[in-house]
Structure formats: structure tokens, C-alpha cells
Amino acid sequence: MNALKYGLLLALWLPGSAWALCSVVTTTPVAFGSVSSIALRTTSQSSSTLNAGLSCTGSLLTLLSANDHFYGTVTSTQSGLLGPTGDVISYTLYANNSTSYPMTRGVAYDFARNGIIDALGLLGGSTPKTVPLYLGTTIGSNVAAGVYTETLSIFWNWNYCSGIGIGSICLGRDINSGTTTLTVNLTVANDCTITAPNISFGSAPVISAFTAVSGQTINLACTKGSAYTVGLSDGQQAVSVGGRRRMISGSNYLAYDIFKSAGTTRWGSVGTARRASTDAEVNPGNGLGTGSQVFNYNAKIYTDQTTPPAGTYLDSVVLDVGF
């Protein structure tokens, strides 16, 4: 009689049994990398970590019931990624690689629901697996350049059947909790949007008939708080001596130049020939991010040259912004 009872006990515990062990582990930081201020403002940036601090091994997917849970609660002393000047970049955390599962700070999110744990295969097999998290920045952030960081606190709390016997009888539960931290960082790089219309001198039969082009503007919308300079190259056909810019048609040249504001100071690309953001005619100072700074200029064809043969004369000038 005793041997029979012993045999039934073995049959109950051994076939089909599987055990799970979950634990809180050190996380893998989230790094968005370097993003231009314009891209950050206009497009949601995404990143993720494959390890948000909860690691599990073993068990069976079929063990998850309505009473089982894997809660993750994210909190922070900040409201987003904090930068060197106090600007904040907002972002959303997601429980899987889809915007359909957003997490709210301070509210427990159950990873056992919506099939997330199943999809991860967190409880299947014998190799430890960790819970990932996904992040997406909020469009519209107008911030200064620099490194932005936040340290999140994640409280993990779980309760589920960790072993099963014949007839899907639960042989034990894994109930535990723990807290870990997750660092998130993003670097904002300086950038500008530039509006620079072409210059057209029109047509004339002789050099003396060309009129100066005035009232021309270059508009720049550069990273919030950025101090920068704007340079104009000498073009593709510049004279090495005297520094005049030239347009070309075939083998013939037509000398011209571009000058700062409404004056006669040549706008160049080196040293004091450049223009500082503080020199803008509209909104002088550091960059505004979402607002434009306007630089006026004028251009003229030099009249102390011989009229070249008729033709269409062209040149290409590069505008560069230095931070």
C-alpha cells in the first residue's frame, strides 16, 4: 500500500513539471545617439533597451492566467530628458515595439496582459531572457544643443505559477519584487534650415548697364541658443589675387561680388569676412530654433572690367554655418 502511494506521488510531480525563476537585474541603458535639433523637433526619434531589469528563466506559456501578473512601474524625479540649459525633451515608453502599448509614469503596467510576455517568450526555455522597453520622443521639442539624460526607477512586481504537474495543477508560485534603475540619454546636435534664393543680375548689353542687386536676404533657423557664423565661399571661378568672385560662360568671365547688408564690405568665408548670428538684421543674437534670423546683402558686377562676349554667365557659391 505504501509503495502504491509513493508511485502516485512521483506521477503527480515529475511529468510535465517546469519551474521559473525571475529576478531583478542591472539594466542596459537606452541611448538615442546624436540627433540634430531639427530632426528632433520634426520627427519622433526611437530607441530601446533589450534589458529593462526583469529577467526570467523556464516555466510554460500556458501557466499565465487572469490572476498572474508582471507589473512594471516607472517613476522619475524628472518629467523627461533634462539638458544643460534646463530644456526638457519629452518621450513615451512603450511595453513592446508598437505605439499601441504606451506606459504611464507612476502607473503599474502588466506585461502579462496583451500577449506581451507570450510574444517575448520570457517564460519559455532554459536561457534567461530580459524584458525590453521601447521609447519614442515627442514631436515639437525646441531645445538647445547638448547631452540630455534621465534616470528612471523601475519597480518590478510579479506573481505567477512557476511550475505545473499533471492536469495543469500549479505546483508553486514565483512571487517577488524589486527595483532597478534605467538611464536614458540623447545628444542634440546644432543644425540649421537655410533659405537662400539665387541671385540674378538680369541681362545688359554692356558692363556699365548692369544694376546692383539689393534687398536680398538669407534666412536661417538654427538650434535654440546657438551662437554661429555664416560664410559665403569665393565661388568656383574666384580670382586668386584680389579675391573677386567670377561667373563663367565658356572660357569667358564676368567679375562680381556679394557684400554685407547694404554696404560695400565683402561677405566671405574666413575670419572677419564671415557674419555672426549677432549681426543679423532681423532677430540678432543666438539661434531661436523655430524662428528665423535674417541677413541682408547686396551684390554687384564690377564695372572696371571689359565687357565680355554675350552669353549666360554662372557661378555657384557655398553658404556654410559654423558653430
Describe the overall structure.
The chain is mainly beta and 323 residues long. It folds into 2 domains: 174 residues, Sandwich (Immunoglobulin-like), CATH 2.60.40; 131 residues, Fimbrial-type adhesion domain (Immunoglobulin-like). 7% of the residues lie in helices and 41% in strands. The protein is built from 3 helices and 22 strands. The chain has a 5-stranded mixed β-sheet with strand order 2-14-13-5-10. The longest helix has 12 residues. The radius of gyration is 33 Å and the shape is rod-shaped.
Number of strands: 22
Helix share, percent: under 10%
User: How would the global form be characterised?
Assistant: rod-shaped
Which CATH first-tier class of the largest domain would you pick? Mainly Beta
CATH topology of the largest domain: Immunoglobulin-like
Main beta-sheet annotation: 5 strands, mixed
Key attributes of the depicted protein:
323 residues; mainly beta; signal; 3 helices; 5-stranded antiparallel beta sheet; Immunoglobulin-like; Spore coat U domain-containing protein; 5-stranded mixed beta sheet
